[in-house]
């Protein structure tokens, strides 16, 4: 089960900056929400309310444009 969280991330500068800093340009990958860097985001109200606390974010990004192209939250 997955939910698109592109807008949530777009409005969460800390998480967006973290994702943009992880990879070379134009990549796609998964990041575990239980990782230390994302714990605060994982425990945020909206994620907990949606029941996606133990999840991964699958995202595509463009470092050149400094934006998240797509991001989905996938329940494990």
How does this structure look, described?
By secondary structure, the protein is of the alpha+beta class. It contains four helices and four strands. It has one domain. Helices cover 33% and strands 34% of the residues. It has a four-stranded antiparallel sheet.
How would you summarize what this structure contains?
The chain has helices at residues 6-10, 13-22, 39-42, 45-50, and strands spanning 2-4, 27-32, 55-62, 67-75. By secondary structure, it is an alpha+beta fold.
- Count helical runs: 4
Compute the number of strand runs. Answer: 4
N-to-C span: 8 Å
Radius of gyration: 11 Å
> Which descriptor suits the 3D outline?
globular
Task: Name the average pLDDT.
Answer: 79
Helical content stands at: 25-40%
Secondary structure layout:
Blueprint: E1 2-4, H1 6-10, H2 13-22, E2 27-32, H3 39-42, H4 45-50, E3 55-62, E4 67-75
Protein traits:
4 helices; alpha+beta; four-stranded antiparallel sheet; 4 strands; about 80 residues
């Amino acid at each position: 089960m997955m939910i698109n969280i592109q807008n949530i991330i777009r409005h969460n500068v800390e998480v967006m900056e973290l994702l943009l800093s992880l990879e070379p340009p134009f990549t796609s990958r998964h990041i575990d929400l239980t990782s230390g860097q994302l714990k605060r985001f994982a425990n945020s109200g909206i994620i907990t309310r949606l029941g996606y606390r133990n999840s991964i974010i699958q995202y595509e990004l463009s470092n050149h444009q400094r934006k998240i192209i797509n991001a989905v939250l996938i329940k494990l």
